[in-house]
Amino acid sequence: MATYYSPRLAGHKTANGERYDPASFTAAHPVLPFGSRVRVTRIEGNPRSVVVRINDRCAAGRKIIDLSEAAARRLDMLRAGIVRVRIQVVSGNAE
């Protein structure tokens, strides 16, 4: 399951120290290294995918990834809020 960041978090620091930018293609994941790039594919409804860079942490639980607003928009999930996804690591830690 994937969710996305609240717009209220714009400008707040992420776990790696950079500021959250809703227009960037970034995401939070419980354990993947910062700088990793992952392809997130929506598997229900209109299947779409986006590549994001991990720059934050989220709690493991019902969701596995927390996406930026731009990434969520690309996956057409803004209205749904939470959608089923498949995650594939595209590249390892770049930082």
Q: How would you sum up this structure, described in words?
A:
The protein has 95 residues and is mainly beta. It has a single domain, classed as Beta Barrel (Barwin-like endoglucanases), CATH 2.40.40. Helix content is 6%, strand content 32%. It is built from 1 helix and 6 strands. It has one helix at residues 69-74; strands at 2-4, 26-28, 37-42, 49-56, 65-67, 85-91. Strands 1-5-2-4-3-6 form a 6-stranded mixed sheet. The protein is globular, with a radius of gyration of 12 Å.
Order of helices and strands: EEEEEHE
Global mean pLDDT: 90
Structural class: mainly beta
**Spatial ordering of strands, largest sheet:** 1-5-2-4-3-6
CATH superfamily: RlpA-like domain
Low-confidence stretches: none
Total number of beta strands:
6
Q: Gyration radius, to the nearest Å?
A: 12 Å
> What's the tally of helices?
1
Strand content: 25-35%
Please summarize what this structure is.
The protein has one helix spanning 69-74; strands spanning 2-4, 26-28, 37-42, 49-56, 65-67, 85-91. It is mainly beta.
Descriptive keywords:
95 residues, mainly beta, six-stranded mixed beta sheet
